[in-house]
Design goal:
The structure is a single chain. This protein is α+β, with helices and mostly antiparallel strands. The chain has a single domain, classed as VC0467-like (3-Layer(aba) Sandwich). It contains six helices and ten strands, in the order αββββαββββαβαβαα. Strands 1, 2, 3, 4, 5, 6, 7, 8, 9 and 10 form a ten-stranded mixed beta sheet that branches.
């Protein structure tokens, strides 16, 4: 067993994946999209899973990407490798946006884009109420479970407040730190195992 396997094998994964939980990538995951990522599971079932990467802001703002919308100063995040030309969103507005899907109490996914536009025109929506993503992260049946078996991810709970803050690459480290002593070593490891 090499040193990387040893580090990962000692990490407990006490929670099962579920809608509204976070996936934290293991520290050496080198995937371009998922390296040191924090992913919100917006949907989870036996048929597959749908998630959004919370901590990878892109360099373009909302109005630089989306046309024919009122001015709205909000960052956009890379949600994942699937459908990278499409925009997705989560929000805290519930029934104010028709056809929203509840992720957990106080947090919703998607809904009527026209409702979002109207709320923007009426100044009834603010960046702290909504987060936008280009693309999403998806797993087919059993794929996520296999990745969890390989210790690619650790599952943890979260709150709507934590999810809705504006985040960046350091968000991964702060969530890992909150998991306790068993995970402390993760925050001290280089992102490239060859530098270890």
């Amino acid at each position: 067993m090499n040193s990387i396997d040893k580090i990962l094998s000692n990490v407990p994964n006490k929670l099962a994946p579920a809608k509204g939980r976070l996936l934290l990538s293991e520290p050496f995951l080198q995937d371009m999209f998922f390296k040191r990522s924090v992913v919100l599971l917006a949907d989870y079932s036996e048929e597959g899973s749908f998630g959004l990467i919370l901590n990878k802001p892109i360099e373009f703002s909302f109005n630089q990407i989306v046309e024919n919308f009122p001015d709205f100063e909000a960052p956009v995040y890379m949600g994942g490798p699937v459908s990278p030309q499409s925009i997705f969103f989560i929000h805290t507005l519930g029934d104010q946006i028709k056809d929203s899907q509840k992720i957990m109490p106080g947090l919703y996914y998607g809904g009527s884009v026209e409702d979002v536009k109207t709320l923007m025109y009426e100044k009834k929506i603010h960046p702290e109420n909504i987060r936008f993503f280009l693309g999403y992260s998806g797993w087919s049946e059993n794929q996520l479970e296999e990745e969890l078996e390989r210790k690619s991810w650790v599952v943890t709970d979260t709150t709507p407040q934590e999810i809705m803050r504006q985040t960046n690459e350091s968000f991964w480290k702060s969530i890992v730190k909150s998991l306790g002593k068993e995970f402390e070593i993760w925050t001290k490891l280089p992102s490239d195992p060859k530098l270890n």
